[in-house]
Amino acid sequence: MGGPVNPSVARALSGTQPVHVGRQPIFDRLGGVVAYELLFRGSVDAVAAGHRDTYATSKVIVNAFTEFGIREVVGDRLCFINVTQEFLTGELTLPFGPEQVVLEVLETVEVDDAVIAGITELVAAGYRIALDDFVWGSGHERLLDLASYVKLDLLDGDLSRLEEIVAACRRRPRLQIVAERLETAEQVELADRFGLELRQGYALSRPQVLTARSLSPSRIRRLELLSALSAADADLERVHSIIATDPALSLRVLRASNSAAAASATRISSVRQAVVMIGLSHIRQWAMLMVIDDVAEATEDQLISALTRARLCENVAGDASVAPEAAFMAGLIVGVAELLNVTPAVMARQLPLAAEVTEALVNGAGRLGGVLRTVQAYEHGDVVEPTEVPVSPDLTTKCMDAMAWSTRAVAAAAPAAC
Questions:
Q1: Which fold has domain 216-418?
Q2: Which end of the chain is more exposed for a tag (fewer CB within 10 A), N or C?
């Protein structure tokens, strides 16, 4: 079993692709970082965004929240994300809460009654709004009473009305002004002269491009998930089954559950628990963005390998009095980590896992850690020592069951590909 279940790093990486997100800090007057603007980047050496459309917004959201994990990108600071009209009017639903996000209304958005109504609802739900590249007379002044931030371009903006715009903002105590595109000492001095509280630009810091390896969810599974979620009486068990049998979908759901877990003392010990915590409506929103994202799928062999390990851990769990679902998830994380060429410990620190699962992945501790070691030893053809886990005499049978189950799970979607 060792060969098929443990593909080489080169083979593993062949089913992954790099994903990127740009991050530019926003500073206060004293030089402290208070937020980051997240930017679309198509490659690690991209200087400019290249896109400022719905695709770019969806890509930034998916990458930041589910590939990296938002806390890995911005920590506990705010993140500013450009959003297009479709997100502001509710045609596309935002799949995250308002806690850490500021929605930037692009200057290209036409402010009509539908946009005002949509932003009013977003503000009532707790979202903060920033008006990007604000220009008086563009129609965006209609949003001043709803906004929390106004961004003023001090490089190419019309500075002839700067004093008037600042005065209008100062009449609204909730508004903070972000001086953006500061590229010279003179522009920084101008921000100081007008007392603009937040600053952003090359004179202070250039954008940094963050890169990670991504195991992309199967297009078929993604569409299957969206179909299951679109039913009027969406079946939680079917949704869980689709997610649990796709390693990348599982990982994205676990990462997306980070924000939900942060608001409570609950820690995740299974994919099912993450599904319940996020809720079907939010998972539906993530699935829609994944369809827009629409990137290449992992190879069938890689999915089978990752799922076989997870299933074998589940099969062995009973011998160690470990919850089968926790064992499945721990095994799945190990498999996905191998595909992404990172350690399970690195992944564990990005996810809102129960202490038992984290300890097993980071330190190999506890009975669950023993399950992982038992499975790893069997995969590598090593002698399986009866440490925390009694060595089952039917371990080979359990392994064959795991391989058969994972092969069926991956093949189940194959007809839809034709």
A1: Hypothetical protein af1432 (1.10.3210)
A2: C
